[in-house]
Structures are given as structure tokens and as C-alpha cells.
Specification:
Number of helices: 3
Structural class: mainly alpha
Largest sheet: none
Radius of gyration: 30 Å
Distance between the termini: 84 Å
Shape: flat
Oligomer: single chain
Number of strands: 0
Number of domains: 1
Strand content: under 5%
Length: 86
């Protein structure tokens, strides 16, 4: 036997029926606090300081990539080089 039950209710009604707590006030407070912190941090950083911090990270990553490729190429060349027999 197969029984199908369709229940139409709002998320609020489902939450209450299942006995779950209402976290709406906490969520609203959290979103508000995050917004305040974002605004404060954006005011602290000018466009020039943002670009300089982003560019320094970018060049560090580029340098690390070049070192990685150089060491890989050096290792591959050493492995491919013919060895002399004693």
C-alpha cells in the first residue's frame, strides 16, 4: 500500500510544527553586524592601498610559479641527460 500526503504550509508554520527555534532575530543581527564591519574595513582601505596589497600578493605568486617551473625544468633536463659510464 502506498500513501501520499501533501502538506501546504509556510516555512514559518513548518518550523513551529517541528518545534525548531526562530533564529530570524539572530540572523538579522548577524547580517547587520557584518555590514557594519564591511563598511568600516572599506573606509580604512583606499584604492591605492588595495592595489598595492593585491599586486604584492600577485607578484609573490608569480615568483613562486616561476621558481616551481624552473626547478621542474631543471629536474627534467637532469633526468633526460645521458649518463657517462665509469
Amino acid at each position: 500500500m502506498k500513501l501520499t500526503v501533501n502538506v501546504e504550509c509556510t516555512p514559518e508554520e513548518a518550523r513551529r510544527f517541528m518545534g525548531l527555534p526562530d533564529v530570524t532575530p539572530i540572523n538579522e543581527q548577524l547580517v547587520e553586524e557584518m555590514g557594519k564591519r564591511m563598511q568600516a574595513n572599506l573606509k580604512l582601505m583606499s584604492g591605492e592601498s588595495l592595489m598595492s596589497s593585491w599586486m604584492s600578493v600577485g607578484t609573490q605568486a608569480q615568483d613562486a610559479f616561476v621558481k616551481l617551473m624552473t626547478s621542474a625544468a631543471t629536474g627534467a633536463a637532469a633526468a633526460a641527460a645521458p649518463r657517462e659510464k665509469p
